[in-house]
Amino acid sequence: MKLYDCAMAPNPRRLRIFMAEKGIEIPKVEINILEGENTGPAFLAVNPRGLLPTLQLDDGTCFDEVMAICRYLEALYPWQPLLGRTPREQGLIESLQRKAEFDGMIAGSEVFRNQHPAFLSRSIPGGGGQTIPAIPALIERGSQTIERFYGWLESLLQHTPFLAGDSLSMADITALCAIDFHGWVKLGIPPGNKATADWYGRLNARPSAQA
Amino acid sequence: MKLYDCAMAPNPRRLRIFMAEKGIEIPKVEINILEGENTGPAFLAVNPRGLLPTLQLDDGTCFDEVMAICRYLEALYPWQPLLGRTPREQGLIESLQRKAEFDGMIAGSEVFRNQHPAFLSRSIPGGGGQTIPAIPALIERGSQTIERFYGWLESLLQHTPFLAGDSLSMADITALCAIDFHGWVKLGIPPGNKATADWYGRLNARPSAQA
């Protein structure tokens, strides 16, 4: 296997933390998103959508999407499960994971990509080399979604140590990466959201947070 | 179990086709999205995001997100698997499923919700009762994404009978529902995309397509 990665980007980080928690190591190829290397001809030959992370299997098959790669790795290396053991855990984790992804991670991307000069002509990921102009109105809409995300997170974490219960899951990892991503656009955990701040401190102290 | 459903909406349909293919039946409660019943107080008490479908378990736990509910049901009823048997199948199906979801289903939602009078103040799903104004520029951006979706689909289906290989998977179901959803905004399979038209005909002929 070979993992096309990008050290600075928030989505590849979700996968690296997942792998660190499970003790999985895969050789990496670093791709520079800021300079647009992911939409250059060499990488588009690997992944026509230009998305990172992308996993290349030994038979040459490539696939992208963090959750698809996590799903593959969890099935291959079932120890330290982060996507749930029982049917109920699996459903709940995927549901919470997706909330954190849509309202935290993707909303962050709306705010960031529609204002950062490097992304003004590629305002959504997945467009390959195509020009996708920024839509400034999405900055406000993304910020509004992020506000809902923090409200949801705080009300959830007042009742549970981790998002899906007593142990760490992919839902926590996605939420953590979303929060650190929000720092890029000067957003973050609202003052007074104590349960979220406590949870964040515990997650951030784990060695995997450095991955 | 109890399933909060909406007969007309494309995302609940993904789940109903998944259930029909596996022969799963769950008692349903119909919620009218067009009239905004999903953002009224009664349903927001069940799901604060107002999203459909929502599954309620016998212990009272509710969760939303089609893929989370499918994940739960696939773990509970593993026959006729639609999310993959081997690790490779599981990763590949989730990767393709998400492409169809983002570039087909969500792009369709961008085009539809930002122009239909009933959704002008709730232009993204998941906002509960909050006002989320339409952003007309998303109509064009969504249409551009849908164009990429059809190009991707055609090039894939020229080499394989179903998206992930020789048998039906959730990736096909999501793509089918996205295509029928595009009909709402007068978009659809481009003339000349023969492999896609053939595949669509085969899928649409299955009894599950009526679910």
Shape category of chain A:
globular
Main sheet makeup of chain A: 4 strands, mixed
Corresponding CATH architecture of the largest domain in chain A:
Up-down Bundle
Number of domains of chain A: 2
Name the helicity range of chain A. 40-55%
Number of extended strands of chain A: 4
Q: Would you list the SSEs of chain A in sequence order as H and E? A: EHEHEEHHHHH
Number of helical stretches of at least 4 residues of chain A: 7
The computed structural class of chain A is alpha+beta
Average predicted confidence as pLDDT of chain A? 94
Query: In terms of quaternary structure, what is this?
Result: homodimer
Distance between the termini of chain A: 19 Å
What radius of gyration of chain A results from the CA coordinates? 17 Å
Low-confidence stretches of chain A: none
Strand content of chain A: 5-15%
CATH class of the largest domain in chain A: Mainly Alpha
Largest interface: A-B, 47 and 46 residues
Spatial order of strands in the largest sheet of chain A: 2-1-3-4
Fold-level CATH name of the largest domain in chain A? Glutathione S-transferase Yfyf (Class Pi), Chain A, domain 2
